[in-house]
Amino acid sequence: MADDFTAKLDSYLDGELRADEISAVDLHVRSCPACSADILSRVQLKRAVQIAGKRHAPSAEFRARVQRRIAARPRFSPIRVWLTAASTIAVLLVAGLLANYVGNQRLERRHAFSEIADLHVATLASPNPVDVVSTDRHTVKPWFQGKIPFTFNLPELSNSEFTLLGGRVVYLEQTPGAQLIYQVRKHEISVFIFQDGAVNPALREASGPLRHVSFNLQSWSDKGLRYFVIGDASGDDIRNLADLLKNAAKS
Amino acid sequence: MEVPEERLTAATFEELAMPLFDQLYNFAHWLTQNRSEAEDLVQETYVKALKGFSSFQPGTNFRAWIYRILRNTFLTSRTGLKATATVPLDADDAPEVPAGPDTPETIFIERSQQQLLQGAIEDLPLHFREVLLLCEVEEMSYQEIGEALAIPIGTVMSRLSRARKALRENLRQKLQGG
User: Fold this and answer.
1) Which residues on chain B are in Cβ contact (under 8 Å) with A66?
2) ipTM for the whole complex
3) CB-based contact A49 B137, cutoff 8 Å
């Protein structure tokens, strides 16, 4: 047995020698039966310990417990808490302002439509609701010449259930416009026509069928003019009259 | 097992540490020789390691790092203190001793007495048991063992050699006694 090689045998078997040292040990072992036997017994022990050493296994429950303990979860640093709180406050503030803005817009629109409804009611309450009394559109339309700063077309009603009763000049927020009164069965309907740019923005935002107080109302814009059709007739009547006016405007 | 610095997160820790769970538990059980204490030791190791993960130096060996935490945790436990108190001074630099003819491991293999070998490992002093298990069972390099046990490579080599010799002696006594 060569003592200098004996000292290297464990490192040799553990794979910790350099290549030149491994070659030297290999060479020696081939010619030294004692070292060869020694290596064999060391390998046997090494393998036996490797197998015997893998003896203890954790339970699945214990593994799950530790895994839960170290599982990645968001940490609440003071900065993050403040940022979250600040974000929440900002969102609430914006939401509050938005709700306030939307509420104001809604209120303003309601006031604006109230004025349209008031004009309609005041006209019907008057003993002389119209200044030009005629069922003929060719009489009514020219009557407005020189009284309002725009012109408009009126529909042919011969094949419809609507009747034109006449018209008058009205003012909405110091803006002149035309009011036409139509009748369908027992219901009287007002049609207001103004320059679109002159009316309250709240009125310009609303289009399509609406309902204000007990009146049905339809509003739209066409070629720079804003139309309002309002009355206590059914929604279908209001829509039908609106369609007649829209078609007339195209011609 | 090297970790880039930007990845030192809890998720990364879990990703690195959980695959070592079985091995760490096995090692902990060999150290404590008790299931309940082994579980406590492993759990404490994981909690400590996660807490200190930000101090883990990227580019160094994670396995050696967490084994070192486990071993240090064990050494400060009641069982660990008791084990180290009864361990004789380590003559790490003693000369290498050959296995010799008619070795107990040959007899052991012939008889296939695995329990006898496990008993012989259990009877080893702590500082021999741990170095032997890290080398043979965990198949760590001397460098890794040195990092895990916080000792130089030269000490790893000599301690390992003495651990093997002590194991052979334990086996011889057990075989003679049995």
Assistant:
1) 21, 42-43, 46
2) 0.81
3) yes
